[in-house]
Amino acid sequence: MSLADRAESLLAGLAVGEVAPRRIGKLVAYDGQMLEATGLAMPVGGSVRVIDADGHATRAEVVGFRGDRSLLMALDGDAPHANGGRVEPDAKGGVAEVGEALLGRVVDATGRPLDGLGPIGETHSWPLAGKPANPLDRARVTECFDMGVRAINGLLTAGVGQRIAICAGSGVGKSVLMGQMIQGAEADVIVVGLIGERSREVADFLATKLTPGVRERAVVVAVPADHPPVLRIRAAMRATAIAEYFREQGKRVLLLIDSLTRCAHAQRELGLSLGEPPTMKGYPPSALSMIPRLIERAGADAHSGGSITALYTVLADGDDGDDPIVDTARAIVDGHIILSRSLSEQGVFPAIDVGRSLSRVMADIVDEEHGRAAAVLRRLWSVYEENRDLILMGAYKAGSDPLIDMAVARHQEILDFLKQRPKDRIDMVHSSAELIERFGI
């Protein structure tokens, strides 16, 4: 038998099929943050592996292109990149692993487990950026969502499928309030995205907020502040993708992203590295446009019957309520909770500023008696805040205005209604009944 015949017989059993060649790129530039590669025609958002000088592969994401060069952002820490290094496509970059096996687990932005409990079990694939949605597929918010916090249930009643922003400066109690909601919320699945927080806070959150009764139905995606900006953005997208999967299964999902501001900061780093022009407070257009894209993925689904009730914490830099991120988030969500530093300094927790906070769906989901009692409390709060300086200076004379007199007399009662210890849970029925009993007409 000739050599050609022997080769043909050996290859006869191999089924190659329709396999196209894989394009391999070459690393040509690296400035400490952004990598540039040639010969790699991949779309923005695609994932690649960069073979370093020591032979190990590090991950990167395509974030843009300049001519025939692809611009990459590294997903790993410092690596010994070398000129001419091999750049390979990675097909797993655009999808998130989702499924029941994630319940009770803690993963990073790439889906790798962080809890030391071994590999994740059987999972399914879900687009990291979500599936295109028809706005008419979103169901109306018509049902109350019990948060277990009296002030929110009574005055800022949340609905199933609502998106809420919790806005405050640093150290006012955003994370504590989120922990109360996790403990008290009536949800089938809880998905938590801890984005850009301190590593210590991640460990503390898992130990104190996810108690044994809650941990089994929760999924945590954690990326501390020292990770690259692309990973922080991916973490928020992965947490939302996991919530979308459970919503499609007909589950009632509570999604918590802490914090949305850290995601915007990550996009700001990325946008400025790509040469985008800075606008308000240095935020490029892509940082502001990312917020509605992320928030609009939450909500109730009319077809599956599932829902994502989403809470996003927003850090108001310097307690500035007109911060671009605060303003953009407040404009797109269905309600916002403003936390007051002055109330927290008085020992009132949760430090909710009733006058500046609002639930846009409350009128549609509470009965008339509940709505009237909430309006009375809000009116008394507003009158007291408008005349606070006169009252505290002693310039207001009692008896001049009956409404102001009532606001002064009942101010402490209002503060007592707002106060709630972190471990207490007050359900919707008791919250509404107490509000009506105290402030009903």
TrEMBL record:
SMART domains referenced in this protein's UniProt entry, alphabetically: AAA
Main localization (coarse): cytoplasm
Domain of life per record: Bacteria
Domain AAA+ ATPase, chain residue ranges per copy: 160-343
Catalytic activity: ATP + H2O + cellular proteinSide 1 = ADP + phosphate + cellular proteinSide 2
Cellular localisation: Cytoplasm
EC assignment: 7.1.2.2
Broad EC category: translocase
Keywords attached to this entry: ATP synthesis, ATP-binding, Bacterial flagellum biogenesis, Bacterial flagellum protein export, Cytoplasm, Hydrogen ion transport, Ion transport, Nucleotide-binding, Protein transport, Translocase, Transport
Keyword Magnesium: no
InterPro entries noted in UniProt: AAA+_ATPase, ATPase_a/bsu_AS, ATPase_alpha/beta_chains, ATPase_F1/V1/A1_a/bsu_nucl-bd, ATPase_T3SS_FliI/YscN, P-loop_NTPase, T3SS_ATPase_C
Family classification: Belongs to the ATPase alpha/beta chains family.
Name of the protein in its database record: Flagellum-specific ATP synthase
Organism whose genome encodes this protein: Sphingomonas morindae
